[in-house]
Every structure is written in structure tokens, then in C-alpha cells.
Amino acid sequence: SKAEIARGDRELAAAFAMLFAGLKNSKSICVAFRNEKLASLAKRNWREMGAMRVTALPSPKQAFGAGRSIQQVAARPFVIAVAPSRDQLVQLQEVDEERGGKFCLILLNARLRGLAESDELREGLATASNPAFHLRFAGPDGKGLVYHRFGQPWVVARRKEAEGDEGELEEVSRSDEEPRFSEVEAALGR
Taking every annotated instance into account, which residue ranges of this chain make up the domain DUF1995 (predicted)? Predict the structure, then answer.
């Protein structure tokens, strides 16, 4: 459900925030969520996370002059963008280009990979980045899995269908390169 996805996004962001919260430079970090509701929930649930800023990414659909600009949100040298929309990704990419790469952008659950339909922006960002960790459900029934961690191959697996094998996965594909959507679907269909 959407609520479970939002909770997962928030919990992953909390894990990353905890990695940085104890550092002396935590005030250099901004955790920016897709919308104000998610940012408010994070603030309420996280309570104390050092001096890092927790906020919402501005909506590109806001009226001109309303709310914050992306430059204000990205004023800190380290920005953790949580589940940004496509329009917010465009804005973040523009800020990165304006600053000549002088700020660190960490994308959490940006949903760049495994797209059924082509999206030039997301494909470009996925190609330009090297994921430290990637996990997504795949296949028409969602019983497949694509998994990768830094320095390891990409693995496609599916749930075993035999009785008594609850939750067990069998590997169906392994490669050094990230598999395309069609390759994942073909591997799961074997």
C-alpha cells in the first residue's frame, strides 16, 4: 500500500540519518522528503537526529514564489533526497549542475531502476550512479527479486513454488552488469 511504501521510505531515511547524526558535521546534512506530510512524520518519529535538517522538497507544481526553492533546500553540502518525484529529480539535477558537483546528493528510493517504460532522466541518473545497495520486487506477480550490493554481481531470483518452501528464493540469473527490465522478465519466465 502507499502507506507501507511511505513508511519504508521514512525508515530507510532514518537508517541513513542515524549514520550521520553522530558526526560533528551533522548540520551539513539535509534530509529532504518528497512532500511535507512525510517530512512531518519523520520529524515526529525521529525526535533527535543531531543538527541535521529534515524538510520537504519543494513541489514543482507550487505557485511561483510559494514555499521554498530547491536551492534553499539544497543549501547544505549533503542532501539525502527521499523518494523524489520526477520533477524534483529534474530540479536536483539542475542544482547539481549549477554547483559543478560541489554538493553530495544521496538518492534514497528514487526508483531509478527497473522501469517498464523508458524514462531518459531516470535512466541517465541510474547510469551515472553506482548503487551501494539495490533491491526491488520484479515480475508480474511481484514474486521475483532483483538484488545488488556494491562490489557484487546483480542477482535475479524468484520464490520457489514447491510446497513447504515458504519465502525461499532460487537464483535464476547473475551478471556483472545491471539487467534490463526485459532481461529480468525473461529470467523470471524460465
Answer: 11-185
Report the Cα 94 to chain-centroid distance in Å. Answer: 18
Q: Tell me the C-alpha distance between 166 and 75, whole Å.
A: 47
Which cell numbers hold the place of 181? Answer: 527490465
- Fill in the amino acid letter for 66: A
Same domain membership, residue 103 and residue 12: yes
Same domain, 89 and 139: no
C-alpha to C-alpha distance for 15 and 6, rounded to whole angstroms: 14
- CB count in 10 Å sphere of residue 154: 20
CB 127 within 8 A of CB 115: no
Give me the helices (H) in the chain, please. 2-21, 36-46, 70-73, 86-98, 120-128, 181-189
pLDDT digits 0-9 by tens, 1-32: 788 888 888 888 888 877 777 666 667 788 89
For β-strands 154-159 and 169-175, DSSP reports them as antiparallel
Q: Which domain holds residue 163?
A: 134-189
Query: Is 0.85 topped by the overall pTM?
Result: no
Contacts of 84 (CB under 8 A, 6+ apart): 32, 34, 57, 92, 107, 110
Q: What angle do CA 130, 73, 17 make, to 5 degrees?
A: 55
